[in-house]
Design a protein that fits this description.
By secondary structure, the protein is of the alpha/beta class. 27% of the residues lie in helices and 27% in strands. Helix 1 packs across helix 4. The radius of gyration is 19 Å and the shape is globular. Bound molecules: manganese (II) ion. The site of manganese (II) ion has 8 residues, from strand 5 and helix 3.
């Protein structure tokens, strides 16, 4: 199996090193990842300047790795172009969760989504960060279980996986969709100029069975996703209530 690995934290993140190491148990691994952090860049693609890559063996022992001056979606487009017949793209392991509404701006998930747009299975993997770096050695058995489960399925699919810091099990979940959790907080810089922080504020309690609920309850959350955003119920209702010529 040919496994292409990317992330949005940049090629020097400990999360991508851990994922590449674990993924080697499942097949041939190559890494194509952004040269600098691209977190919260969503599914941005670079179209107004050329992309280039450099060999980047630091962080990866015995694995071919390249850093790209682009976004996670760029890395997947370029990586699958350079390495034909990629079977699956893994994106992560992100330093920080990608639950609920954060899927909309996640660069980690965008790496997996870009794979699916190109007809390749895509799996995004994320974990919360406390005061210290995540303990990837402790997560390894669960990362392995998730990969064993999702890689054996021959169907094309898009999956968003979130690991709690200390997993006690795994759950199939749905995306928690509540009011958006972004908030702008104004501040003053040392020169006395106004500036603004884009922050996250706590939401209502998570719905049972959702991705947020799973991670809050120390379960690994696996959410199957789709790219089609069409509201099918509303579409049928509009087609009958407001037929168009
Ligand atoms: Mn990130």
């Amino acid at each position: 199996m040919r496994i292409l690995i990317t992330n949005d934290d940049g090629i020097y993140s400990p999360g991508i090193a851990a994922l590449a190491r674990i993924a080697q148990k499942f097949g041939e691994v190559k890494v194509v990842a952004p040269d600098v952090e691209q977190s919260s860049m969503g599914h941005a693609v670079t179209h107004s300047r050329p992309l280039s890559y450099k060999k980047s063996p630091i962080n990866f022992e015995g694995i071919e790795a390249h850093r790209v001056n682009g976004t996670p979606a760029d890395c997947v487009a370029l990586g699958t172009h350079m390495w034909s017949q990629t079977d699956v793209v893994l994106s992560g392991i992100n330093l920080g969760p990608n639950l609920g509404n954060s899927m909309w701006h996640s660069g980690t998930l965008a790496g997996a989504k870009q794979a699916v747009l190109l007809g390749i299975k895509g799996i995004a993997l994320s974990t919360p960060v406390g005061k210290d770096e995540p303990k990837f050695d402790a997560l390894e058995p669960y990362v392995e279980k998730v990969l064993a489960l999702l890689l054996q399925d021959k169907h094309l699919g898009l999956f968003n996986v979130n690991f709690p810091q200390k997993p006690t099990g795994m759950m199939w979940t749905r995306q928690s969709v509540q009011f958006y959790d972004g908030k702008i907080v104004p501040g003053i810089d040392p020169m006395g100029r106004k500036h603004y922080w884009s922050t996250v504020i706590p939401l209502d309690p998570a719905e049972e069975g959702s991705d947020r609920w799973a991670v809050e309850n120390n379960k690994v959350s696996i959410t199957p996703l789709r790219l089609d955003l069409t509201n099918e119920t509303l579409l049928s209702s509009l087609q009958s209530s407001h037929p168009l010529d």
